[in-house]
Amino acid sequence: MSGREVVPFKCEECGAEFAETAGGICHSCGRVLCRKHLIIPLLKGTRLRDAPAPLCTTCQRTGVKGEGA
Ligand SMILES: [Zn+2]
Ligand SMILES: [Zn+2]
């Protein structure tokens, strides 16, 4: 799936298209979400690898943890 154009990701929550750096994947439900719907708990002085896994607004609201089917 390699096109010449850089196809942006599409938020599965609001349908907005965004670049890879402007969003991410929910660690819980695995959906691709824009930054508006993906909460990335970045802490100052924390490296990305050490940062907590990002959760979408839905998963964080419901408090679902772990890997859902
Ligand atoms: Zn969104
Ligand atoms: Zn989620």
Provide structural commentary.
The chain has 69 residues and is mainly beta. It has one domain (9-62): Herpes Virus-1 (2-Layer Sandwich). Helix content is 9%, strand content 20%. The chain is built from one helix and six strands; from the N terminus they run E-E-E-E-E-E-H. Strands 1-2 form a two-stranded antiparallel ribbon. Strands 3-4 form a two-stranded antiparallel ribbon. The longest helix is centred in the last third of the chain and has 6 residues, at 57-62. The radius of gyration is 13 Å and the shape is globular. The two termini are 25 Å apart. The mean pLDDT is 80. The site of one zinc ion (ZN) has 8 residues, from strand 6 and helix 1.
CATH superfamily membership = Zinc/RING finger domain, C3HC4 (zinc finger)
Helix content: under 10%
User: What is the number of strand segments?
Assistant: 6
Classify the beta-strand content into a percent band: 15-25%
CATH architecture assignment? 2-Layer Sandwich
> Mean pLDDT, rounded to whole units?
80
Helix-strand sequence: EEEEEEH
In the residues, how many domains can be counted? 1
The backbone outline, from C-alpha atoms, is globular
Q: Which regions are unreliable across 5 or more consecutive residues at pLDDT < 50?
A: none
Q: What is the assembly state of the chains in this entry?
A: single chain
The CATH class: Alpha Beta
**Structural class determined from secondary elements:** mainly beta
Largest sheet: 2 strands, antiparallel
Biggest sheet strand order reads 1-2
Question: How many angstroms separate the termini?
Answer: 25 Å
Number of helices: 1
